[in-house]
């Protein structure tokens, strides 16, 4: 959704832009070209993406600042570059995995490419962090169930969690993407699933999504990332987010629009709150207040042309908002 980003990013020729999800640098490059004189700070937790940002720095001297780390590492990284609060004119998040990560079987994200069940966006940069294989080999059955249910919204989460635990005793530990995909195909032998374009989808898709979100602590990172965006954007600066599934989008929406919708409590952020609690006017005001003014009433979706030429964009939802306080 490059065009939509450029239209809503509100930059000019001497702007400071922070790309929180550099990936292969597609969005960064379009900003550098469209706004000559702008400077882009490029963050990614993946060392492969970081190397690409370093290469781009030589292509656009003094205009690219590569940063290696997670959203939650941002304060430390920016401090070492002298960037302070209220520093940026726009911040972009293009959540999820990059095509580079999906397409490289060795990273373990893809069902269709055989590789080790790794799924760490950081790769081996943080070797102590557990891989997807570690999670499948060690988590309690109930925890696996919760991961599959909450992060994958998988209806058959219980059955799959049971099968994963049984497989530990029957076979060697699950090590590869193919072994996991085959196990789930056996468990869900009579299921057939389709994606948003009504095309055949592998029955293990949701489980792969769930594991990836868990291994990378993605939802907590998103939540914290948006809080940091509010800190590092100047007032009047723009926040742009591109989400690929409802769990990501609900977190962004909660930040941008506040915690209450239609006078009722938004179920996602307040799901752990006792409904019997009585809230006074002050706390209700706090729930509903927001630092953001959305630029559009509804999310922006990719054009038919983009979906046709890049089917991975089919679930993308773009939100744009201005920091108002
Ligand atoms: C969808 S891709 C971005 C693609 C990019 N906009 C482009 O045009 O090439 C998402 C990128 O964000 C990175 N990422 C995801 N979560 C992150 C986090 N919490 N901290 C830093 N980078 C993250 C991933 O490693 C991945 O490279």
What structural keywords apply?
single chain, 325 residues, alpha/beta, Rossmann fold, DNA polymerase, domain 1, 2 domains, seven-stranded mixed beta sheet, two-stranded antiparallel sheet, 14 helices, 11 strands, 42% helix, globular, binds S-adenosylmethionine
Explain what you see.
By secondary structure, the chain is α/β, with parallel strands linked by helices. It folds into 2 domains: 2-94 and 218-323, Rossmann fold (3-Layer(aba) Sandwich), CATH 3.40.50; 110-215, DNA polymerase, domain 1 (Orthogonal Bundle), CATH 1.10.150. Helix content is 42%, strand content 16%. The protein contains 14 helices and 11 strands. It has a 7-stranded mixed sheet with strand order 3-2-1-4-7-11-10, sandwiched between helices. Helix 7 crosses helix 8, helix 7 packs across helix 10 and helix 11 runs parallel beside helix 12 (246-257). The protein is globular, with a radius of gyration of 21 Å. The two termini are 27 Å apart. S-adenosylmethionine (SAM) binds at residues 21, 23-27, 43-46, 49, 70-71, 94, 96-98, 121, 221.
